[in-house]
Please model this.
Amino acid sequence: MQLVALPGRVGTHLVILLLCVVWILPLVEGVVTSLRTLEDAFEVGWWGVFTDQRITFDNYAAAWGQAQMGGALLNSLLITLPANAVLVSVSAIVAYTFAQMEFLGRRTTFAIIVALMLIPPQITLVPVLKLFNWIGVNGTLPAMWIYQGGYTMPLGIFILVAFFQNLPKELVEAAEVDGATPLQAFVRVALPLARPGLLSVFILHFLFSWNDLLTPLVFLPPEAAPLTVRVAALLQTSSTDPLVVVSAAAVIAIALPMTLFFTLQRFLARGLTAGAVKG
Amino acid sequence: MSIQVRILLAATVIVLFPVVLVAIVGLADRGLRAVLSFKALQQTRPWIWITPGLVFMGTVLVYPLLDTLRLSLHDASGREYVGLENYAWIFTAPGVVDVLRNTAVWVTVIPLVTLLLGLVASVLIDRVRYESFAKSVLVMPTAISFVAAAVMWSLVFKFRPAGLPQRGTLNALWTLLGKEPITWTVNPSTANAALVFIVIWSYLGFVTIVLSAALKGIPDELLDAARVDGASEWQVFRYVTLHQLKPAVIVVTTTMVVWVLKTFDVVFVFTQGRYGTDIIGVRVYNELFAALNWGRGSALATMLFFAILPIMVINIRRLFSTFGAST
Model:
């Protein structure tokens, strides 16, 4: 698309530049602060690094050890990865069914799933808590897997239905002619072809689960706290100092999602675009 | 549970859950094949295959929703029926209506400003060579939790009394202009705006990605045809481009409205709802888990649900009008 008028060439670059600078500023300020000594950070803001030219990794050692970020990182992994395995596998088989099979009640069920995509977590907390207490999983990791896996499932199904619908029906039929059962055709033929879709669901759920504060706050005891809960507690108890250790903790918390973001950006963009109901 | 046991349990679930899922569905499928006619099998099989999903969504979404509706008509402990008392409380208790009003402000301002910024960003970015770089910068906050963002933004917003050198970028620039430093996040006249801005910072990437994809989907011939007909570039933008973007604009706007209504983290971490920043998503949590009043918390949560209900209806309608034909 070519738009010649509107703001001129220089104006265009200036607007984009300004936007990018503002958007990256907190990240720069956070990373630089995490690398400064407490004394330097007391003296002058993060730009002081250009004059005193001194950096340190002590804050990371303090965050990892005393501030228990190492343990919190492990807790986050133990929550996010199994929840993702549950979510992706169940979503895939449900989505495949909706995309490839005709059955009574299909439209209605799918409409309900689309509605469930928008349920705010706040509505579900107390009943789920009561239920988890009743079956005895409250405060344990499986509580988080069940909750987070189930919570993202409508979105996962929605995204994957679009992928499985684009799959040529002949491929599945050919496998069945060769003697595969429908389930074998799903696992061996359809699933490998839907890999981009599965990756989109994976990255979306990873970011949701890793970055979520509300549900671990409700369902987990402090000793099982993931990164978000630990960093929030650190920030609330140290709001007056220059936050060098808290900054290091925040950088530790975003390291893995940022890495995944840059390696899987393509799939994230596809997931975000597909997840927003198409017009 | 010791840490070793938890690691082992997690690893087992990651590896075995998908296998067990397929095995169970496979067994059920085989059993049905043995007893049902082909036609009956065609109708039953899909329900067997979607049952695991229905169990999960029923457990953590459908049943809790219904139970919350019920709890909203009961007292703090959830035992005694109190009719609409909790709803009466929402509209008569001091301060609660202010929370709803502030939520209304958030739900209006954030989608509107983010949409406008996203339109500007996606149109302008489309015209420069470093498009993918600029897009990465704008989308990056999508990967950052509100908690980590709160740490980084509180550095930017840092305050020291006038006369002392400022450590935060914003007050450093602000005092450079000869103004008095401001306590951005604890001052009732700026705290709300500061938090709203952080949410906009977080969501702009999503809006830009979706609008940018829609922009690239507009056929060049359409724009050229308008130009040949003598339309100015502004008119082309106003009448062709914007019109073509309408479906994408509706999608991102409704999505953001829902996200804003659900917002919890950023307020909880920064202010816990003080300084005029309280919104419904935070107040529900505080009623449920700080005041321990399940009735009032559930009534507020139910209001949240009814605020989102129209968007659910819109989405289902759109679904049936587009790919509903085949569904």
In short: Chain A touches chain B through 124 residues (CB under 8 Å). Residues 1-5 of chain A have pLDDT under 50 and may be disordered.
